[in-house]
Each structure stands twice: as C-alpha cells, then as structure tokens.
Design brief:
The chain is α/β, with parallel strands linked by helices and 180 residues long. The protein is built from five helices and six strands, in the order E-E-E-E-H-E-H-E-H-H-H.
C-alpha cells in the first residue's frame, strides 16, 4: 500500500492481476490514483508451448511473473480463485500454474488476493455471468483503452486487478480492508 490521500478514501495502489492458464497466462498491472482513476500500466500474455515439458512451462510462468513484479512493483497480486472443472487432468495442471503464480508473488514478498469468477465479472461488468466479450469491452471502457485487450486472457487479468481495486476501496471505506 502506498499512501492514503485526503478525505476521499482512495489509496494510490498498483495491482498485478493474473489470469492463470495452461496455454496462455494473462497478466495486467493496474494502478488506482488518489482520485480513484484507473490506469493500465502493463498487460500481456505468457504463451506456453504445449510441447514443452510441464516443469519448463511452470518455470517460464515463474520467471516471467517475477520479472513483471520486479519491473512494475505492484503492491499486491490478485488471481482468479479455483473453479470446478469437468476434466480433472486439466484442473490439476491449472492448479499447478496457479501455485506458481502464487509462489512468484510470495517470492517477491507480495500478498495474494483470490476472487471467484462471478465476483470478477460482477465488479467489472455488473453481471456475474457476463460473456468474455463483455468483460473485454468493459475493461477497455474502465481503463480508457483504444481497443479491447487481446487475447481475452489479458482482459481477464486486467479485470481481476480492477476487481481487487474496487473491493479494496469498498473495504477501506468501511474500515475493513486488511493491511497489505
């Protein structure tokens, strides 16, 4: 956490949102300034080769996220919470990527917040069952981007960061935000 300004109850805060995936892991760094305005600082996708051995892919995620954290210095990391999947093997691989994302944050001394997909969509679109295209559109509107982020994993990562900033601001106003 950087600093509280004035009576408007906004905190200058920078969040790294991560949308974990076994082929593409999206990331987005969003900053909220002291008047509550949101700005996209960085966003992109870590593309993982399905031909590479799993340990090599996990190492790629770890090294890339560590580099992003070192470069952009977020105050916290936010990721999507575990969801239930029909395919157990896919769910296990996704869990490993999530674990590496959490390890990257912990390695750099950052706390991690987790949000359910419904909460993320509700915070960004206002509807928990929104389509990916709706999330992309609203992320572009909220961050004043010229075009919706591509691929959708990048928009999802930015949405996760926005969700955390909205949640943090609400909890701070209520005096219930945990210290980072």
């Amino acid at each position: 956490m950087r600093q509280v300004y004035g009576a408007n109850c906004y905190e200058m805060m920078r969040i790294l949102g991560i949308d974990c995936g076994t082929e593409i892991t999206g990331y987005g760094v969003v900053e909220q300034n002291d008047d509550g305005a949101l700005t996209a600082i960085a966003a992109g996708a870590i593309r993982l080769s399905t031909r590479a051995p799993l340990p090599a892919r996990l190492n790629q995620v770890f090294a890339t996220l560590r580099g992003i954290i070192e470069q952009h210095r977020p105050d916290m990391v936010a990721i999507e919470d575990v969801f239930y999947a029909v395919n157990v093997k896919s769910a296990l691989k996704l869990g490993q990527v999530r674990g590496v994302a959490m390890l990257s944050a912990a390695f750099c001394g950052l706390a991690v917040a987790e949000y359910a997909p419904l909460a993320i969509k509700s915070a960004v679109v206002g509807y928990g069952r929104a389509e990916k295209s709706q999330v992309q559109h609203m992320v572009a509107v909220l961050l004043k981007l010229e075009a919706p982020p591509e691929p959708p994993d990048v928009a999802d990562a930015l949405a996760i960061a926005i969700c955390h900033l909205h949640t943090w601001t609400t909890l701070s106003r209520q005096g219930a935000a945990p210290s980072a």
